[in-house]
Amino acid sequence: MNFNLGGLLFVFMIYQPSTAVEKIHSCLPGSVKNICILDHVFYNRSLNIKHIFPQNYSIVHIGNDGWKKGINSVIQAFDGQLYAELGHPPVLESLTAEVEMLEIPRALSYANFAGNRIEAFWIEEGDAEPQLSYLDLGQNGLSRLTNITAFVNLETIYLQANQLEVLELYVFKNFTKLKVLNLNYNLFTVLSGDLFPPSLIYLGLEYNDMTTLDYGTLQLPSLKVLNIGQNSLRTIDVAQLLLGLPKLEVLRLSHNKLSHESLRSALEVLRQRNISYRDESSKVSCYYDSEQIEGVCMERQPTVGGRVKIVLLSILSVLIAILFVLLMYWVYVFMNK
């Protein structure tokens, strides 16, 4: 059965009565011309409250200002009606406001809903072409991106720290303007290169669990930065990788499971191509069980001497255990004479 999720979602909300109590919201002191910062927005259409928001601002920010901790606004469902009440701002940020369901207005050009609880989102009903060019849905609970296909004008997408495991083949097929795609901190184990549009300049795949790269399909002629650090790659063929990335300038690959020999071979190829690979952090930022190799943090590997030491310690532990058993047996025999 076909049905419009966006149209049915708000049926549960009670119609606003004419005798509703008015809640007048004001921009925080310090807000500048065309920018309105709102906090303590507790919005629930089922309550007997009529919210009145400031109008004629091109940028509206709701919720945490990035400096304070905790939650100071709650908007469980954001839709076109609330967007209209806010005055149709082309730029909207609603951070850590407990948003669970999101209907993205077609007129919105910049949307930042990071740090919420969004598991589903969709586009507002209508015929107008969606204007959205920037979308940040990082730190939410997304497991699928089916409804993102409508936003073909997107140039920047942040989807870090969600629950994404698989990308459908068609998701970014028509995204001819997409330049930045951040998929860091998700659950991908393998990704095919043909999932990504050739217009990409930045691709972030850090902190996933990828074990292999599909070199043959990774054809991104405009890509300048590729971040594949913090994965589970045990091998990497940089020369083959670069065949599909002719304009690559930066490759981040720290904290994988590469042998030091494989890493040094890869770094040699990158040096020859004048491609940056050094971590931006200093040596002290490597984990306690890692070491820095030519500016790249990689898992520390035991040396030959270290392996011998481990074997000797294991043998010593076994001998001590045998001696302890013999001692206890001797005590038992002596006590029972």
From TrEMBL:
The chain crosses the membrane at residues 310-332. Residues 1-20 form the signal peptide. Pfam families: LRR_1, LRR_8. The keyword Cytoplasm does not apply. The keyword Transmembrane applies. Keywords: Leucine-rich repeat, Membrane, Repeat, Signal, Transmembrane, Transmembrane helix. This is Leucine-rich repeat protein. It comes from Aedes albopictus (Asian tiger mosquito). The lineage of its organism: Eukaryota, Metazoa, Ecdysozoa, Arthropoda, Hexapoda.
